[in-house]
Amino acid sequence: MDRNLIFPRSLRYLMAVAEHHSFTRAADALYVSQPTLSQQIKQLEDLLEVQLLDRSGRTVQLTSAGEVYLHYARRALCELDEGKRAIHELHDLSRGSLRLGMTPISDYMATPLLDQFNSRYPGITVSTLEMPQGDIESALAENRVDIGIAFSSAASSTVFSDEIDTHIMFIETLNLTVGKSHHLAAQTKPLNGEVLEQQPLGLLHSDYALRRHIDQYCSEQGITPRIVMEATSLSVIIEMVRRGRLATILPETIAHSQHGLHSIPLQPGLPRHTITLICRKGAHKSPACLAFGELAGEWSAARCQLDGGQPFKPFSPSGAGADDSPESIDGDGHEPAAKGMPDA
Q1: pTM for this entry
Q2: Contact assessment for residue 293 and residue 165, using Cβ atoms and an 8 Å cutoff
């Protein structure tokens, strides 16, 4: 043990002697023996190489050095007490922080969850970082985010590393999306690839996983998409589609939640996508992180109740938890009935 360490107990002993002007009365007030108190203060003086107390008179007084040091000792103890209160506030969730990594798609999909979290825990600061899908796992590994919200093809061969825990919340359908003034806005029956090929499309840039999955679908179906606009902002794409000339491909939930958009199924359909919480396996989970996982479980349960599915299990403080692998979903984006995941 470092002999230069100064423990809060020594500072409290010094403060008590300064208050009572007596070792005996200070020891009684602190319920310790006088030799113990005297020894602690003597060790503090030896460590500082200065006399803090004048013991020569009928009462014990602070020396000039003692008065200066006591001023800082009080401040230090106040800071320690404040730190203790802050820890308690973290655990009762009256304060804290949470860093989330999301794609442009999961950003939109998770907005209701973020709103519920902020309503329940207004003292917790949430920072959202939007990034391509592939960067979220790196951000988790480098401790730049606490939780990632991924949007992945259920039929994709892409698998997260062994260092990542995955928790599927629900499965989402992708459809062609148009504005209310688009010539297909009244269409309700599924569209084939020939019709899709004729539509001017606005899509996310190829850096994003959703775009690559759309490109793969078009390639497999022999479709040459007419892409007239690429963007890194989903808001820009949605606004352009809302104006009526362009179409895009979006999760059904986003199309239904945005004013002025109409969703049209495709035949054959695109592989469905999973909305998945991901976190670093074995990483410490802060109280805010655990609270977000618990609320996400409730959110998933509410959605699954409508769809007849089974919600995911929130992760544990140590990082261990149920791992819902996308590999358990078949090539059409369906999960086996035994798993009971939602079919959104």
Answers
A1: 0.66
A2: no
The two beta strands, 164-172 and 273-280, are antiparallel
Q: Point out the domain boundary residue: 69, 91, 113.
A: 91
Task: Examine the domain organization and report whether 85 and 40 are in the same domain.
Answer: yes
State whether 225 and 86 are in the same domain: no
- Which CATH number does the domain housing residue 64 bear? 1.10.10.10
Burial 115-124, CB ≥16 within 10 A → b, else e: eebeeebeeb
Q: Would you state the pLDDT for residue 105?
A: 87
The whole-number pLDDT of residue 155 equals 58
Asked if 103 and 210 count as a contact pair (C-beta separation under 8 A), the reply is: yes
Residues 257 and 181 in one domain: yes
Q: Is residue 149 domain-shared with residue 278, that is, in the same domain? A: yes
Cα-to-chain-centroid distance, residue 47: 45
